[in-house]
Amino acid sequence: MEKQNSVVVMKNICKSFGGLQALKNVNLNLYEGEVLGIVGDNGAGKSTLIKILSGAYTKDEGEIYVFGEKRDIKSPLDARNLGIETIYQNLALVPEFTPVENVFLARELRKSLLRLRVLDRKKMKKEMAGTLKKIGIDSAMLGAVTRNLSGGQQQSVAISRAIHWDAKIIIMDEPTASLGVEESRRVFHVVRQLKEKGVSVILITHNMHSIFEVCDRIEVLRLGENAGMRMREKTTPQEVVGLIMGERP
Predict the structure, then answer these.
(1) SS3 letters across the chain
(2) What is the pLDDT along the chain (249 residues), one digit of tens a residue?
(3) Secondary structure element (H or E) that encloses residue 179, with its range
(4) Residue-wise over 67-84: b if at least 16 C-beta within 10 A, else e?
(5) pTM of the shown model
(6) Strand 20-31's sheet: what is its strand order?
(7) CA-to-CA distance for 51 and 117, rounded, in angstroms?
């Protein structure tokens, strides 16, 4: 992979919870239009690091640069304003809403009607259909209730919500954990589409197949520290597992 511009640089990130040091001088680089996999055993620090980038936690020490500028991310809103969106494993969708309602939740489009401001459902549906088309997803599901959609379709709704609001960096936490083989393939397809459009993706997963299916680079964390970085095409699942377990080449 050609080295591109860094969109995120995290330097010497430290985070403690009481007497437990969850992160110890962790470094991370994310490049424009790449898919970066972050792997590690339970307690490795993956979730803590990503929650710092997404604004759910604040760092104790270290520096964060987004698009070349030093940033102090103190909340999820700070992250969103920088173009960073996080799709957690539970997707944070309202089951009783339609996909359109979920995408525009708290950001509904309105129009004037008889001096009243009412929801512009037609425009919202049209905009979401356009967003789905950009990433190669059929818009036939737009009128369904979200709880009636498959796991892969719900993932598509969550991804659509992120890119519709102009996310440049998308963090995906275990995106295929509850999906079957075919639905996982669809999610991989969407990730590739995002990459082609220049969106940078961070993929957190325990699934080694997912890592080697779509990631360009693999960052391994172990016991709150960097354990190694590998280019996907220059490593093997066995080597990555060895790094996770603390083995050294």
Answers:
(1) CCCCCEEEEEEEEEEEECCEEEEEEEEEEEECCCEEEEECCCCCCHHHHHHHHHCCCCCCEEEEEECCEEECCCCHHHHHHCCEEEECCCCCCCCCCCHHHHHCCCCCCEEEECCEEEECHHHHHHHHHHHHHHCCCCHHHHHCCHHHCCHHHHHHHHHHHHHHCCCCEEEEECCCCCCCHHHHHHHHHHHHHHHHCCCEEEEECCCHHHHHHHCCEEEEEECCEEEEEEEHHHCCHHHHHHHHHCCCC
(2) 445 789 999 999 999 999 999 999 999 999 999 999 999 999 999 999 999 999 999 999 999 999 999 999 999 999 999 999 999 877 789 999 999 999 998 889 999 988 889 999 999 999 988 888 877 777 788 889 999 998 888 888 888 888 888 899 999 998 888 788 888 888 888 899 889 989 999 999 888 988 999 999 999 999 999 999 999 999 999 999 999 999 865
(3) none
(4) eeeebebeeeebbbebbb
(5) 0.87
(6) 20-31, 6-17, 61-66, 69-71
(7) 37
Closest CA to 13 of 41, 66, 53: 53
Q: What are phi and psi of 204, to 5 degrees?
A: -105, 125
> How many distinct helices (H) and strands (E) make up the chain?
8, 12
In contact, 86 and 171? CB cutoff 8 Å:
yes
First to last CA, the chain: 23
